[in-house]
């Protein structure tokens, strides 16, 4: 992947960040914030960014479709055909609760699927301006720097997202010996790059919303890590079965899977 070649997706994300997100960070009005489901928040900024990106992305690949998080809140059946054709997955503002609270990290994320397989990924920090991106078979990048998952001694620190994790699985996590369990950053678009860069060794997600995980799983695997379902089978964006284990290496994935007692 040429780090110097103009990237229209990155340009769209940067425009959305400077036009819609950064100016409203810590400047939201009360009526900019809505609850779309119990415990699930959305802002006018999420919707504005998705509305901007949708026609622009569709125009980049004639015949493609766009499936965005906020569209799916209104029309869930959009998720039914992720395995067909070319599909843009859009999370306009990952870390919405962070945004509402006036804190970072935040991310705007896009993935391009071809017949259900992620072939492109973009994750932009809309405040700091750092772009993490990947193309299938062409590596993972932090801006123009090729990124390879950090080596290390094994499973020492893991992010476990417990909000949707069943109680019996939480008990399993508690049995991990010698592993520091971290709560995460409330932003998958920041957690995936952080894992690849060595901030922690593995992440365990239960809920697998496609727009949250398609960009990051491609990024981590292109950096040399592993992302798979808990039984070891490959992750696909259209898969709605819960449970996703991500690690910075095959060795760490195997160690985490063994600790999880995957059979």
From TrEMBL:
Q: From the Swiss-Prot or TrEMBL record, give the protein name.
A: Inositol monophosphatase
What is the species listed in this Swiss-Prot or TrEMBL entry? Roseateles chitinivorans
Sorted alphabetically, which keywords does the UniProt record give?
Hydrolase, Magnesium, Metal-binding
The family assignment reads: Belongs to the inositol monophosphatase superfamily.
The UniProt record lists the keyword Transport: no
One biological process term from GO is:
inositol metabolic process
Q: At which positions is Mg(2+) 1 bound?
A: 69, 91, 94, 212
Residue numbers binding Mg(2+) 2 = 93
What GO molecular functions are on record for this protein? inositol monophosphate 1-phosphatase activity; metal ion binding
Among Gene3D superfamilies, the record links this protein to: 3.40.190.80, Fructose-1,6-Bisphosphatase, subunit A, domain 1
């Amino acid at each position: 992947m040429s780090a110097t070649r103009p990237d229209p997706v990155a340009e769209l994300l940067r425009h959305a960040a400077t036009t819609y997100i950064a100016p409203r960070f810590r400047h939201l009005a009360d009526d900019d914030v809505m609850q779309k489901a119990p415990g699930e928040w959305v802002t006018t900024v999420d919707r504005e960014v998705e509305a901007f990106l949708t026609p622009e992305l569709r125009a980049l690949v004639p015949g493609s479709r766009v499936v965005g998080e906020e569209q799916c809140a209104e029309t869930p059946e959009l998720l039914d055909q992720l395995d067909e054709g070319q599909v843009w997955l859009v999370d306009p503002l990952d870390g919405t609760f962070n945004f509402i609270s006036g804190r970072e990290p935040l991310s705007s994320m896009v993935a391009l699927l071809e017949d259900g397989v992620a072939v492109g990924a973009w994750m932009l920090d809309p405040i700091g301006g750092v772009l993490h991106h990947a193309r299938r078979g062409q590596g993972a990048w932090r801006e123009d720097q090729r990124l390879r998952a950090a080596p290390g001694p094994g499973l020492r620190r893991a992010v476990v997202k417990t909000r949707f994790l069943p109680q019996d699985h939480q008990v399993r996590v508690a049995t991990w010996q010698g592993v520091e369990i971290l709560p995460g950053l409330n932003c998958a678009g920041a957690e995936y790059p952080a894992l690849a860069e060595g901030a922690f060794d593995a992440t365990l997600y239960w809920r697998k919303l496609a727009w949250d995980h398609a960009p990051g799983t491609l990024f981590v695997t292109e950096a040399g890590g592993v992302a798979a379902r808990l039984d070891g089978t490959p992750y696909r964006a259209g898969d709605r079965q819960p449970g996703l284990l991500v690690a910075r290496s095959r060795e760490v994935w195997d160690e985490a899977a063994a600790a999880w007692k995957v059979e």
